[in-house]
Each structure stands twice: as C-alpha cells, then as structure tokens.
Fold:
Amino acid sequence: MCSIETLVMRIQKGDDNDAFVVLEKKLKPLMYNIYYHHFYYCVELEDFLQEASFLLFYTAKKFDLSRGKPFIAYYKRSLKNYAIQLIRYEHRESVIPEKNLCKCDVSNLKYQISIEEEFLLKEEMSKYWDSLSAFEKAVFCLYTKGYTFEEIAEKANRSVAAIKSAFNRCHKKFQLFYESIHKECIK
Structure:
C-alpha cells in the first residue's frame, strides 16, 4: 500500500500511469464528502467528480513535496475553493438574471468556466495582456480599480468615447482569447 505523497511523487515523475488511478481511488471518499457537504444543487454528481478528478491531477502535478505539508490538506482546500466557486456562481445567477448582466463586463463570459478552462486561462493570461496596447492596458487597469469611464477620460486627457472604445476593444480581445481557450478544451 503506497502513501498519498508517494503516489503524488510518482505522478510528478510521469513514469507510472497507474499512480493517478490509485490516488483517485483513495481520495474518492473526500470528493463525495465535499460534494454532499456543500449541498450541490447546481452540479450533477458525475460532473463534479470529473472536475474533482481533473483538479486532483492538476494539484498532484503542482504540489511541492519539499515543503513537508500533507498533500491531502492541499487538495481538500483546493476542492473546497472549487465548491465555493460553484456556489457563488449559482448564487450570482439566482440574484442577477443573465439578461440583466452588464454586457461590457469582462467577467461575463459566454460559457460557464470549467476548472480546466480556468487553469488554461491563468496559464495563458499573459498572451491576452500582451495583445493589449499601452492605452488599452491603462484603461483596463483604471477600470478594474473602480474608476468610471468619465474619471478615466479625465485622467487620460481623452474623450469618454475613446475610453469606452478602448474598453470595448479589451473586452472583444478577451472574448476572442477566451473562445480560443474554450475550443482548446473541447478538442
């Protein structure tokens, strides 16, 4: 019988294909526990287990064994964070109907983000950032800090129309970037 940390080490080396299957089998009760503890009415059990398995593989690859911390605690925290994310998404949808969401908000994507897409987005975000012009970056940063279009126009000494246009370009570039990630996940 292998310890969880030994299985993680074997997964990180990549030379043992069965290590992930054994690790997944050992942590399946934890996945069920998290699912039932958080009263998932927004996700089917099979979908959650699939996402939890992907998260397990990702966290096993990423986990730093040299820190001396137990892997199971790290994975449990990651799984709880994912559960909270799902609950927040469901709550947001019930509080703010989709038709009332601002169309200019970069966070409003066409699709619900899976864990795989979230990880790909985080890894590839620098490509999106590099696609923006210096002016678009400045507008985007000020907008995310809570400034209105009028305040940004005043700070940048530009018209409100120019600010809105730059923000819309940021939004369109992000949509294209996200759709390319989404297509990559579907393949």
Helices lie at 4-13, 18-37, 45-62, 71-95, 115-131, 134-144, 149-156, 160-186. The chain has eight helices and no strands. Confidence is low (pLDDT under 50) at residues 98-111. The two ends are 36 Å apart (CA to CA).
